[in-house]
From TrEMBL, chain A:
InterPro entries: ER_ret_rcpt. This is ER lumen protein-retaining receptor. Keywords: Endoplasmic reticulum, ER-Golgi transport, Membrane, Protein transport, Receptor, Transmembrane, Transmembrane helix, Transport. It is a multi-pass membrane protein. The keyword Transport applies. One of its GO terms (cellular component) is endoplasmic reticulum membrane. GO terms for biological process: protein retention in ER lumen; protein transport; vesicle-mediated transport. The chain crosses the membrane at residues 55-78, 98-115, 121-141, 153-173, 179-202. It comes from Citrus unshiu (Satsuma mandarin). Pfam families: ER_lumen_recept (PF00810). Its main location: endoplasmic reticulum.
Length: 215, 10
């Protein structure tokens, strides 16, 4: 464990807690893409298949349980909660899952480190995580106004992956045989997807203006 | 397990 990875995990944890806080306190999910939340639940479900068979550490198991629990409860809130689901804007959140899930599945079947079910599922979860934010970014472009909790959510998600890249660089130089192209490329693609959002986020923060994404 | 060091990440 290094400081970059710990900071990355804490930032990732903060992003889901910010989201749960928003939904739970103001009983609204306005501006949140259910599609992205469902994709993240799928990411964790396919990545943590070995949560009970491959014990790494107490920290690792606890964090996996938190991520699984929070992502599925966010989906439940938006879909099932009697008050929250009314603020879900399904006419705007129209990104088709399959445009994302199928290419990731095909790619995971073609490019993986071992052709076993768990390895393919794990690789699929990496590719899926890289693009899972797309429905949310599309929704933000459409609704154009970004309330600061949603902005913080996307910002923290991007920051977590950027910190993970620093972690991979650190581990590459400090551990031998630490070479995992699939993880690195998927992580890099994911971080680049956030790059333009970061740009506008900092612009609005610097000018102390409301965050507006260009059409 | 040491088989897959990368799987120690979340």
């Amino acid at each position: 464990m290094n400081i970059f990875r710990l900071a990355g995990d804490m930032t990732h944890l903060a992003s889901v807690l910010v989201l749960l806080l928003k939904i739970h306190t103001i009983k609204s999910c306005a501006g949140i893409s259910l599609k992205t939340q469902e994709l993240y639940a799928l990411v964790f479900a396919t990545r943590y298949l070995d949560i009970f068979t491959n014990y790494i550490s107490f920290y690792n198991t606890i964090m996996k349980l938190i991520f699984l629990g929070s992502s599925f409860s966010i989906v439940w809130y938006i879909k099932r909660h009697k008050i929250v689901h009314r603020s879900y804007d399904k006419d705007q959140d129209t990104f088709r899952h399959w445009f994302i899930v199928l290419p990731c599945l095909v790619l995971a079947l073609l490019i993986n480190e071992r052709f076993t079910f768990k390895e393919v599922m794990w690789t699929f979860s990496l590719y899926l995580e890289a693009v899972a934010i797309l429905p949310q970014l599309v929704l933000l472009q459409r609704t154009r106004n970004i309330d600061n909790l949603t902005g913080q959510y996307v910002f923290l998600l991007g920051a977590y992956r950027a910190l993970y890249i620093l972690n991979w660089i650190y581990r590459y130089f400090t551990e031998d045989h630490y070479i995992h192209w699939i993880t690195w490329i998927a992580g890099l693609v994911q971080t680049l997807l956030y790059a333009d959002f970061f740009y506008y986020y900092f612009q609005s923060w610097k000018n102390n203006a409301k965050l507006e994404l260009p059409a | 397990n040491s088989r897959h060091p990368r799987k120690d990440e979340l």
